[in-house]
């Protein structure tokens, strides 16, 4: 009888915390902080922010492409550091009255060179 009692107590000691944490039972969900969903949206929602567009080749006799597309205000705000989570009425940061001036700093095209996994290509530097 002591052997059976020992097995039951050991199994409860092992499976008890798992059942309470939500790993096994759907009746006890794991609490999630509200900032977790915000971080996941930032990570997965705007996938094209840091992807490089692939342009067609530059043909002879045609003018080289010009960097015309300025970044949107939304892209600039996402590239800025995160607003610190402060204490209400003690320390708060706001980004309500920000004005953006978009100036093209660099617009140059490198000579053709070989890129691994791409082939012969030209790199167009366009910095705003």
Determine the fraction of residues in helical runs and give it as a percent range.
Answer: 25-40%
**Class by helix and strand content?**
alpha+beta
Return Rg in Å: 28 Å
Beta-strand residue fraction: 5-15%
Major beta-sheet overview: 2 strands, antiparallel
Describe this structure in words.
By secondary structure, the protein is of the alpha+beta class. Helix content is 30%, strand content 11%. It has 3 helices and 4 strands. The strands form 2 sheets. Strands 1-4 form a two-stranded antiparallel sheet. It has a two-stranded antiparallel ribbon with strand order 2-3.
Q: What's this, in brief?
A:
This protein has 128 residues and is an alpha+beta fold. The protein contains three helices and four strands.
List the helices and strands and how they pair.
Blueprint: H1 2-21, H2 34-44, H3 73-79, E1 106-109, E2 113-115, E3 119-121, E4 124-127
Antiparallel strand pairs: 1-4, 2-3
Q: Which structural traits does this protein have?
A:
two-stranded antiparallel sheet, single chain, two-stranded antiparallel ribbon, 30% helix, alpha+beta, 128 residues
């Amino acid at each position: 009888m002591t052997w059976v009692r020992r097995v039951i107590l050991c199994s409860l000691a092992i499976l008890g915390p798992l059942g309470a944490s939500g790993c096994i039972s759907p009746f006890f969900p794991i609490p999630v902080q509200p900032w977790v969903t915000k971080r996941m949206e930032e990570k997965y929602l705007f996938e094209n922010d840091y992807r490089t567009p692939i342009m067609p080749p530059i043909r002879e006799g045609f003018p080289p492409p010009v960097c015309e597309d300025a970044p949107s205000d939304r892209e600039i705000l996402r590239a800025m550091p995160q607003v610190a989570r402060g204490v209400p009425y003690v320390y708060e940061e706001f980004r309500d009255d920000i004005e953006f001036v978009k100036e093209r700093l660099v617009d140059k095209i490198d000579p053709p060179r070989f890129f691994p996994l791409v082939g012969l290509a030209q790199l167009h530097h366009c910095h705003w």
